[in-house]
Specification:
The chain is α+β, with helices and mostly antiparallel strands. The protein has helices at residues 45-53, 66-72, 79-82, 85-96, 104-109, 135-151, 162-166; strands at 9-13, 16-20, 26-30, 35-41, 60-63, 111-119, 125-133, 178-179.
Length: 180
């Protein structure tokens, strides 16, 4: 992320990646347990969800404080500065000086909330929400689950997303994942 400071974000429109301002769109999402403010970001889901589903229009969002979202509206004024090598290096050094992620106790207490919504051409909408273990734990557990499947001969060679390879319910094979 530090190497992309000051750059545009992207969203998928009609199958193509289109540049947009970081945090261009924001909205409140009801996760069942709590309501959180989210803003659009250029996460890899824009690519992986497209490969998995073929859905031509995709945006990824993450939860942020509304004040952060509002402050990002002014980022365009300093993008030229954020794109300089010394600012990016300064930010990368700050990141490198911190722990690589949450410690075991923090991860044990945390969890992730995921919300997805799809709309067809008729305007009909479906959405779902899931609660998962904390993101680092979820990633590690999912990787082990997939490795186990591969070692048991359950795989097809070639590039695939986890959902394409093992189905949309793969995530529910992971302990602690539940629909909200």
């Amino acid at each position: 992320m530090a190497s992309r400071l000051g750059e545009k974000a992207v969203r998928r429109v009609e199958g193509k990646l289109i540049p947009i301002s970081l945090g261009k769109n924001g909205m409140w999402v009801d996760f069942g347990e709590k309501k959180l403010f989210t803003m659009s970001i250029p996460w890899g889901d824009i690519s992986t969800a497209y490969v998995s589903t073929g859905i031509p229009n995709i945006e990824s969002y993450m939860s942020v404080k509304p004040t952060v979202y509002k402050a990002l509206k002014f980022q365009g004024l300093v993008n030229w500065l954020l794109r300089t090598q010394w600012v990016r290096k300064f930010i990368q050094n700050k990141i490198d000086s911190k722990p690589a992620g949450p410690n075991f106790e923090e991860r044990k207490k945390s969890y992730s909330l995921v919300w997805a919504e799809v709309k067809n051409q008729k305007g009909e909408t479906l959405s779902t929400r899931i609660k998962t273990p904390e993101a680092y734990n979820l990633t590690a557990t999912a990787s082990l689950l997939i490795a186990e499947k591969v070692l048991n001969g359950n795989y097809q060679s070639g590039f695939q997303t986890p959902a394409k390879a093992y189905g949309e319910n793969l995530v529910f094979e992971i302990e602690g994942v539940r629909e909200i």
